[in-house]
Amino acid sequence: MSYNLKIGICGWGNVATGLFEQLNQSVDNQPYEIVCIGARRDNPKCDPGDIKIHRDIFDVINEDIDVVVELIGGTETARELISKALNAGKHVITANKAVMYEHGHELINLANQKNSYLLFEAAVAAGTPIIKMLSNDLGANQVSKISGMLNGTTNYILSNMENGVSFEVALEEAKEKGFAEPDPSLDINGTDAAHKIGILASLALNSNLPANKFHIEGIENISAADFKYADEFNLTIKHLAVTKKAGAEIELRSHPVLIEKNSSLGGLSGVRNGIQIDTDLLGEFLIAGSGAGRESTASGLISDLIALSKHVESSPMNYPEFKDIPKIKSFESLDFSYYVYLEVQDQAGVLALVSQIFSENQISIDKIVQKDHLADGKVPVVVFTDLIKESQMQKALKNFSEQSEIYFSKIIRIEN
Ligand code: HSE
Predict the structure, then answer these.
(1) Helical spans, DSSP H, in 129-265
(2) Where are the alpha helices (DSSP H) in 89-130?
(3) For ligand 1, atom 7: residue with the closest CA
(4) Does ligand 1 come within 6 angstroms of the Cβ of 340?
(5) Which of 97, 132, 145, 196 is an active site residue?
(6) Would the CB of 126 count as within 6 Å of ligand 1?
(7) Which of 192, 240, 272 to mutate to test the pocket of ligand 1 (most atoms within 8 A of CB)?
(8) What is the pLDDT of residues 227-264, one digit of tens each?
(9) Which of 53, 138, 301, 334 has its CA 20 to 30 A from that of 400?
(10) Residue 247, phi-psi category: left (phi > 0), alpha (psi -120 to 50), beta (remainder)
């Protein structure tokens, strides 16, 4: 049995108009009716027809509706809107990963208190199903690890760079296609993916929302040369966000990685997201699909509307309990192999100096490549290390930065 849901949409940008268009295109007898829209201004790209418009988005809550669909983005106004809607006894559906990450604990607790439902399928991987799947379908499993390529814009940029397109051109294309955030620096600097892995960690491993501080790094320093060196060893570069059980603690991190080209995640290009989940009963489990854009996000939002229409008297999903919240393992104590890119002075003894720094930090070298020449008497030296601690690598980077013969150094962690 399903119920006819009366909907108020808050926000009237790319995602909201995408949802409106998909709902309007749906066949007759769908269990929803858009009652009103909260929009500060019109959107020339979409005509809402006869639907009532409120210029103050908070007025949507006072309408005779069952569910507020929050699509305004951002954190503080969205938090206030969601809280007020839940307090008024409305259900809330949101695609907003930033507000779920920053205030998820408080908002989920409030929804539970008010016997309302807060659904957020589209907040992670847009329409590619993961939130309700983790919460419901994988409920019998113990999850030990989630590795996710969770930002469509970043994957779009990296896979285009791999094919010779510049970072700037690929970013412009991602913006035009509606994949990027209004402030694309959140995509580029790893924050958007960090929000999403934080939400998944909370559902799978009961970590807090927001999580305590963890390592977040973006793709700003990835260059065409890195793809060239990676390719020689059948590797590619992706942005990965990972959470993993580590005894009583959990690992949580969001940064670029070198990964095998032919692996399940390494082979996913364009706007696609990929999420690998390691579980006790299913083993390794992979989900991949479009992770950004208006159609994909509309798919995730409508899946929440469908779930809500069928479960008005019982929860459409299981929420984290936020009890015995595990600590986040120190990033410095994690083990990685590294790709180390150095630009050094082209003169006798410099390679020996590089080797000495690795040796003094007990870092064993797996491979070393030196073949190109740059302008101004510089040469790139690329080193692949064996497995070491992050703290050892950080000490070596500090030592490199203290040498006048070493002009530049950077690392990319290698994901196994
Ligand atoms: N900017 C986000 C991305 C949108 O590129 O993945 C979907 O959350």
Answers:
(1) 131-132, 152-162, 167-176, 185-188, 191-205, 224-232
(2) 97-113
(3) 292
(4) no
(5) 196
(6) yes
(7) 192
(8) 999 999 999 999 999 999 999 999 999 999 999 999 99
(9) 334
(10) left
For the chain, the first-to-last Cα distance in angstroms comes to 46
pTM above 0.70, yes or no: yes
**b/e 12-35 (16+ beta carbons within 10 angstroms → b):** bbbbbbbbbebbeeeeeebebebb
The two tokens of residue 171 are 């970013």
Question: So what's the pLDDT on residue 278?
Answer: 98
Ligand 1 atom closest to 154 (CA): 5
- Tell me the pLDDT band of 3, cut-offs 50, 70 and 90: low
Distance of CA 293 to the CA centre of its chain: 14
317: left (phi over 0), alpha (psi -120 to 50) or beta: beta
The pair of three-digit structure tokens given for residue 83, joined into one six-digit string: 């809280």
Which pair of structure tokens corresponds to residue 151? 């930002």
pLDDT at 298 over 70: yes
Mention every residue, 6+ apart, whose C-beta is less than 8 A from residue 199. 97, 100, 101, 104, 120, 123, 124, 131, 209
Active site residue 196: yes
Angstrom distance (rounded) from CA 201 to CA 205:
5
Distance between CA atoms of 373 and 18, rounded to whole angstroms? 49
